[in-house]
Design goal:
Elements: E1 4-9, E2 12-17, E3 20-28, E4 31-36, H1 42-49, E5 54-55, E6 66-69, H2 76-90, H3 93-96
Antiparallel strand pairs: 1-2, 2-3, 3-4, 4-6, 5-6
Amino acid sequence: MPEATEQTTWGVPTFRVNGKIFALVAPVGDRDAVWLKAPPGAQAILMEAAADRFFRPPYLGHKGWIGIWLDASPDWAEVEALVGRSYRMIAPRRLAGGLEREPSRRTGRGSPRRPTQQHA
C-alpha cells in the first residue's frame, strides 16, 4: 500500500497511512486476528454472514471495525480486499485513488496493484 508503515503499538503490529491506523494484528484470547476499519453496516453484515470468520473486536468494535480470525483458514483474497478497503477509508485521496477498487465479482479484476517500491 502506498506510504503504509508498520509500527508496534500496544505490543502489536499496527499498519498506518498518514499516521492513522488502518489495520492491526492482535490476539483475542488465544486466537490471532486482524482488525480492520469497515464502512457503516459492514460489521453486522459480515458477522451475520460468517460468524465463524468475523467478530467484533474489543476497543474498536463499537466504532464499526471488523475482526477476522486468522486461525480459521481465512480466504486470503477476501482478507486482501478488506485490508485494501480499510486502507482506502483511512488514506488521503491522493494515495487511496492510486489503488484500484475491490475486485468485481464477475471479472475478478480490480485487486490492488503492486507498488513499484517496497511498502508494508
